Amino acid sequence: MEPLSQLKGVVSAPAQDDSPPLVELPPASALDYLLPDVRIAKRPAEPRDASLLLVSDASTDQENDGLWTCDATFRDLPSFLPAKSLLVLNQSRVITARLLMQKKGTGGKAEVLCISPLKPSWDPAVALAAPSGQSVWRCMIGGKNIKAGSRLVLEAGEGLTLTADVESREGKDGLVRFSWTSIFQPTLQSLSFGTVLERVGKIPLPPYMNRVSDAADVQDYQTVYAMAQGSVAAPTAGLHFTKSLLEQLQTGPKAIDPCHLTLHVGAGTFQPVSGDDVSQHTMHWERVSVPLTTLDALIEASGSGRPILPVGTTSVRTLESLYWWGAQLLSPSSSSSSSSASSSRTKQRSVLDLSLGQWDAYQFGGSSTRQRPCTFVPAATALDALAKQAREEGVESVGGETQLMVAPGYRFALCDGLITNFHQPRSTLLLLVGALMGGLGPVHRIYRHALSNGYRFLSFGDSNLTIPPARTLLPVRPGRGVGAKGGVVDWPSMGRGGGGGREGWTCLSD
Q: Nearest CA to 229 among 196, 256, 253, 258?
């Protein structure tokens, strides 16, 4: 393993915990591109896997062979994936979190979007099961003169009335306590908050769709494998999968297995980078949970060199956070009271309540006045440390909160590629894709090709399979990173792994 201080993209920790990493971040203006409204998909493809798939291969970058693309459809995905890949899926489910309400007394219009629960628990599963009066959420609140002490109401069928008491306000956000009653059917008062939302709430479509959600969106804006309720936006890279395609991947000759984790997507995913200094952008926090069955599968894949392919940027953030949590757990400084110069948020009492700050992955293990340079922990070792700690605690998952911001200069520990959609201008998700592909230059070439060839963009848009160059991967798994020993991922692109040539592929020049 290379010393951390010698590895580009993960560098010595600055003096302040919240300082940006010592990497050359691009200006926010580099995230701009012209996206005509007609290219924003308002509805999904029918069927789901009829969407287009652009395969973007930068793995030949080290051979000075450029960026190659192939135009396909999503149902062709199996032919482009390495055999025995581990497909990582975010199983978070979108809740009907948008509430169209009125101010009690005046009848003024108000809109409430439930973002994240605070009481009786931060865990959406617990908060959605709460009875009347016990569920408090951080919400985005729209409407005139709505302040702390305001009461909002929503009257639904069967005499059901949902009441939202605003307990505090800060900017567009506020803390809201929900209660509900029914004058015709008193038994409705015993409903859980989640059931009430299903009855009276609406699917919170992204603002760029510029349309009101309808009954079709209840199914269309969910992945077919969504299980864990809690998101206010779909992990949209997974919307292209059908149950039959997932079965084909698993039972077909390539034996591609799925595994599941949960990152509840918040409204912050739509927040563009403001200003022109990326380092000053505050990344949003999101809660994640990874069952031990998935962690065990990742440990096996990491140790054997089996390809790991995340579906969506949310799966990427979760995987990378897992690695750094495990590495931090094994760091001698993690048990030292003198290590306060490193991030104060990565140390927690339980593997159920881990935390990773915006720049922690860049800072962790770097030399400072209170730390010595260290080497990278192998991925399988880092993940195994988390699994052992979870079993010692008697819990069946690991998780917590992550604020990880992935930008060019970052190198990936647990990602061999990425299935994602085409993202909006100024999005932090463009930074993540740029980090994987070795810079924003390849991303702009990919997007120009997509715009010129009829691809649809954003949540209901088409898909992009990105294959990275070796230099963007950390050498913490067999065959990963520049000059690493062991087998490399056998991507069957441009004829590699199965003979043939470059028929159907296009080289995108600068």
A: 196
Q: Give the helix ranges, DSSP H, for 108-176.
A: 124-128
Amino acid at site 279: S
Distance CA 266, CA 234 (A): 9
- Tally of helices (H runs) and strands (E runs) in the chain: 10, 19
pLDDT value for 118? 95
Give the mean pLDDT of 159-175: 95
Write the pLDDT tens digit of every residue in 402-439.
999 999 999 999 999 999 999 999 999 999 999 999 99
DSSP string computed for 190-213: GS-HHHHHHHH-B----GGG-S--
Q: Looking at beta carbons, which pairs linking 97-100 to residues 24 or more positions away fall under 8 Å?
A: 97/197, 97/201, 97/204, 97/232, 98/201, 98/202, 98/203, 98/204, 98/213, 99/154, 99/162, 99/164, 99/197, 99/200, 99/201, 99/202, 100/154, 100/202
**Helices (H), ranges, 268-312:** 292-304
What digits encode the pLDDT tens for the residues 183-227?
877 777 889 999 999 999 999 999 999 999 999 999 999 999 999
Distance between CA atoms of residues 341 and 369, nearest Å:
8
Residues 6+ apart with CB under 8 A from 476: 1, 302, 323, 376, 377, 378, 379, 382, 413
Task: Write the pLDDT tens digit of every residue in 104-132.
Answer: 989 999 999 999 999 999 999 999 999 99
